[in-house]
Structure formats: structure tokens, C-alpha cells
Amino acid sequence: MKAWRRPRAEPAEPVPADTIESLMARLDAAAQVRLGRTLAIRHVNTGSCNGCELELRALSNVLYDLERFGLRFVDTPRHADILLVTGPLTRNLRVALEQAWDATPDPKWVIAVGDCAIDGGLFKESYAVLGGTGLSVPVDLTISGCPPSPTQVLAGLRALLEVNAR
Amino acid sequence: MTGEPAARATDVEGEAPPPGRPPLRHMLSPQDWIATAQTAAEDSWVLLAHWAEPAAVHALYLDPATPGVVPVSIAIEAGAYPALSPLLPAAALYERMILDLFGHVPGGAVDPRPWLDHGAWPSEHPMAAPSAPRTDRPAPAARAEQPDAMILPLGPIGRPIGEAALLRLTLDGPVIRRADSRLGFTHKGTLALMRNKSPRTAARFAARLSGDATVAHGLAFAEAAETAVGTAAPPRAARLRVVMLELERIAGHLDTIAEVSRLAGAASMRAACQLLREILLRACHFAFGHRLMMDCVVPGGVAVDLTPDGASALLQALGAVAARLPALRRDHEGVVPGARLSGTGRAGRALAESLGVGGVAGRAAGRAFDARVGFMPGYRTLAVTPAVRPAGDAAARQAVRIAEIGASLRLVSSVLEPLPPGPLTVALPQVCGEGIGCAESIRGDVWHWLRIDHGQITAAFPRDPGWALWPLATALLQDSVTDDVELIRASLALPASGMDL
């Protein structure tokens, strides 16, 4: 009796190559649709008066419902695709912004939200303020307003989502 | 005390100042300066604000017995002045700010470490005249820690969407043995930017001290400017200011309740509050042209009138809040937030009084101070009863907020109809003067002081409630556990920008 020496399971048939190819194409398309259309956002405050933060917080209320677009706020720049920067760039927060930018994996985007983040706004003459976000890290998109409404912020984020999906 | 009429030449000490007239500021000798602080500590006066100019240092006390405010000053001698912090712990943060900005050394201060200055500004003491180029200031010795102490730093970029501040917690397992705060990250040089500008121009900086208290800061600043030049806002503007301040309070409280509910695991409460807040902000945008009503209050009156259908849009939004309020109250008393909130971050009344904590945090700890009662001219004919709770914990603060939303709803409805007709602004005369104004913001009493010289601001100081809330927060965090840190912060609605100046 040598039956126990050999496994009873029959050798598997080779997978047809055309099935592999068609499945790979379908998975690729699905990943583009399902995974390519999601972006993680880290908010970075570089000296804001808290006005922009109020409107950013409003983005998660049931009327705007940010997450239905695949956009979500994350706790660390290491998990982020987007740095959402608010406030004039104060001298005391420049290093913090640069550290957050360094910690964000490529590819990454920086969005300057609000008039202050664009060029320092009302505070650009001050000894304590350097100016806009762009003086420290490269900015990809600006959203103006003091503060910009949640609708404006959402429009900017969705535009970036479209670009990302292409 | 030797009184010296610094406010207006016609003031006579001893007479009660007429409404709208600033209280006399007393110029004190060093002995009287300390004697006043001793009296303040003994008679439970509250240090409301403590600030400086290139040649003098000022303090503003609240005498709860009168009640009234007492501004006092002391001249700087040889770059120094006697510190108040050994007698009044609430003065410690102000003294660090004064040293950083003006270079005045508080003699005998309890805490010599820098506060706003992180070593990144181009000059040292930027508000001093003349400001000195930066030299390497010897770093003060760090407090001795146990060699094996575990330090947990939170911030400055910490919370998902919030203000920039640093909390440094010394841990023993999950228990916080010592909490230390460091602010100044969002210092924007507001005091320097306000100088040599007209009140109307400088009001834009006052409106951007703190986004969710923009009406309160704008209003306190406007009233200080109006008092300084001896005028007052027209009746219609005064009523619209009340409407805006109460709308800001309802929206701000809803935001804080939503955030605390999220952390306490009450998701439906959070969703409901956020929705109500959004409905209210949209109505504000429709009625006043700005969701947060930023720049709507200006010195001399208000910048915008209600749009034709604005009043009905506001009343409709307020109706939505009122309809949901009983359910909100029921949810708050339910098991889910209650188990998490009761007993968390408990502040005693004595602590709140010694630090001068007003607003929701003060009233939830039994200190019945509300600047709307007796200090704000616009509320003179309106009945405001402070909502007071004795417990002092996060649950009490939620309860006070819910009660205040109800009170503000009634207040706005009674003021909106009918609004008195008439102009929206008066021109400010180009004269000299000094003034103090105040407003009750969502976090507590905001005080603004300024001096005007022929229509130009020569010195100003805004006192944000944060000056009292941060010392309270570090005291409450001590001996609590790390799991409660976010909840305590949210429940106090800790600000940063307003006190970073």
C-alpha cells in the first residue's frame, strides 16, 4: 500500500492566460474607479484665526458630507495626499509646515485655503508673518475667501479629485 | 491710591462716570501697585487683563462688589516693574507676553520663560521703542523632570482641524502628572499692525483675532473706540449688534457641543448640532452677507443692514434650532454622553475665580459672571440671566451651553422685531481719548482697551478669554488621564489665535 505516500489531490489545471488578462484589465479599471478616486487630507494651521477651520469642520456636516466624494481628513501627514493649509505663514509655524510637507509621501498636493494662506492677506506687513504658504512649500491650488465657504473649498477639492483620477 | 485722570481731562475722581464714559485709570507708585494686587487677592477681585506700552504697564481689575472695572497703571523704571504673579497666578502668562513683546522685566515673576517669542522673529521685543536686534537670549533652565518621566507632546499641528498650540504632558502610566502649555505659534503681530491706523481700519484686525468670536471681538473693539472719542452707536446699530452677537453664540455653542458629542460617542447629537449650525450660518449669510458676520460690526455702528427678508430668514433658522432643542436636552441627559462627561475635567469654583475664568467654563463652575449683565451698553434694557451650574465638569459645561442657546433664541427673537429705524453708523470725531469695551463671547468675556490720538490708534490690547482658559486647562489636565485630554480641550473650547495676538 503506497496510497498514503502520494497526495490524492490531482494536479491543478494551468490557469488560462486569457482569463488572467481579462481579469487584470477589469481589476485595473475597478481600482481606478474605486481606489483612484479617494484622497486623504491633512489640515495644517500656519497661523489662522480659526475662521477657515470653522468652515473646514463644516465640510463634514450632513449637508456637504465630504466623505461621499472619497475625501477624508486624516490625523497625520504620513497618511495624506493633500496638505490643506490655512492662515498666514507665521515665523513661529514655518518649521512645522515644512516638517509636515517632508512627512507627506509623494505624490502630494498643497492647497492654500483662504486669503491669508495665499499671500499673507491682511497680515502680510507684520514682523511675525512671512507671507503666503508658497514661500515655504510649493502650492498647487489656492482657494480665496475670508474665510472661503465650504462650497468653495469643496469645489476646489473635487477639481483635484478629477485631476487625480485621470 | 493716588488717582490721576488719564482718560479725559474733565473727569473728576469720586463721581460715578456717566454711561459710555471710561472709568478713570489710576497711575500708581510701585508700592500702590503691589498694594492693589494684595487687595485684589484678599477681596477676590479678578485680574481681567494685564498689558503694556513702551513706557508703562497696565492692569484691569474687576471689582465684583460694585460691580465695576478698575484700570491701573505703573510707569516702567529701568526696564522693570513689580510682578503681579506671586500674588495673582492669573498674571503669569501676561507677564511672559509683556516681556516678549516689550522687554519690560517683571521683577519677581513666577515664570520667566518666553511665551510668544520662539526665537524666529527678526527683532527682539518687537513692540519696544526702539526694538532691539535679536541677540541670543539665554534659554531659561528647563524644569527638572524625573529622569525616567515620559513626555507626551501634543501639537502644535495636532488635532485634525483645530488651532495651533502645544501641550506638553508629563506622564506616569496613563496619568498626567504635569501639564504645560506653550502658545504663540499663531502670533501675527496684531498689536503692531493696529498702531497708527484709524479705528475703522484697525477693526479688521480685531475681527480676525478669533474666527468664532469675530463679532464679540469686533464689538468690544468698536465700543472701546466709541468710548474713547465720546460717542455711541445709533439705536438700530446697537440692536443689530445684539442680534449678531447672540447668533454667533448659538452657532459657536452648537459647534462646541458637536465636537464634545463626537468625542463622547454621541454621533447623532453631533450630526444634529452640525446641521443646525449650518442652517443658522446660511441664514446669517442671507441676512448679513457673511456666514460668520466678520467685519459686520465697525466702530461707530454696523457695516451692513439686514437684507429685506433677512429677519424672516433668521427667525426661520432660529425656529429650526428651537424645534430641536428639547431633543438635544434629552440626548444630553442620556446615558451615552453622560457616562463620559460627568466628572471629566472638573473645575472648582475657587479655581475659576482665582484665574478669572468667565464664560461657559466659569458659569458651569458656579461663577455667575456674564459681561452682558451690567457691562454691555447694548444689553441695558434686555433681561439676561446667566445660566449657572455648580458641578464644574464637562457635563455641566454642555448643560450651560444648551441652556444659553435657549436663552439666546429668546433674546434674538425679542430684539429682531421690531428693530428701531434710523442710521447704521455715526462718524467718529477726530479727537484724543482712551476707552474700554467688552463683550461676552462664546468662551467668556472679551475686553478691549485702546488709546486714540487725533483719530489714530496709538496703543491697543485685546483680552481674549483664552488668557484665563489655558491656565485652567493645564490645572484640570493635571491628575487626569491621557484619554480625557481631547475631551477636556474640546469641552473648554480652548482657543489659540485670540491670545496669540
Q: Give the end-to-end Cα distance of chain A, rounded to a whole number of Å.
A: 63 Å
Biggest β-sheet: strands ordered side by side in the sheet of chain A = 2-1-3-5-7
Q: What count of structural domains of chain A?
A: 1
Instruction: Please give the largest β-sheet of chain A.
Output: 5 strands, parallel
Give the averaged pLDDT of chain A, no decimals.
87
Provide the structure class of chain B: alpha+beta
User: What is the helix tally of chain A?
Assistant: 5
The count of β-strands of chain A is 7
Within the CATH hierarchy, at the fold level, what is the topology of chain A? Rossmann fold
Shape type of chain B: globular
Question: Could you tell me the strand content of chain A as a percent range?
Answer: 15-25%
Largest interface: A-B, 43 and 45 residues
Q: Indicate the overall shape of chain A.
A: elongated
Structural class of chain A, please? Answer: alpha/beta
**How much helical structure, as a percent, in the residues of chain B?**
25-40%
Tally the beta strands of chain B.
16
Question: Beta fraction of the residues of chain B?
Answer: 15-25%
Tally the helices of chain B: what do you get?
15
Largest sheet of chain B: 4 strands, mixed
Family (chain A): Belongs to the complex I 20 kDa subunit family.
Pfam families (chain A): Oxidored_q6 (PF01058)
Organism (chain A): Rhodopila globiformis
GO molecular function (chain A): 4 iron, 4 sulfur cluster binding; metal ion binding
List the helices and strands and how they pair.
The complex is a heterodimer of chains A (166) and B (501).
Chain A: H1 17-34, E1 39-45, H2 51-58, E2 71-73, E3 82-86, E4 89-90, H3 94-103, E5 109-113, H4 115-119, E6 129-131, E7 141-143, H5 150-165
Parallel strand pairs in A: 1-2, 1-3, 3-5, 5-7
Antiparallel strand pairs in A: 4-6
Chain B: E1 26-28, H1 30-42, E2 46-52, E3 56-63, E4 68-75, E5 80-82, H2 92-102, E6 105-107, E7 123-124, E8 132-133, E9 150-154, E10 166-172, E11 175-182, H3 190-194, H4 199-206, H5 214-229, H6 235-263, H7 267-288, E12 297-298, E13 301-302, H8 310-332, H9 335-341, H10 349-355, H11 359-363, H12 394-416, E14 433-440, E15 445-453, E16 456-463, H13 466-477, H14 485-492, H15 497-500
Parallel strand pairs in B: 1-4, 5-6
Antiparallel strand pairs in B: 2-3, 3-4, 7-8, 9-10, 10-11, 12-13, 14-15, 15-16
Helix pairs in contact in B: 4-5, 5-6, 6-7, 6-12, 6-14, 7-8, 8-12, 13-14
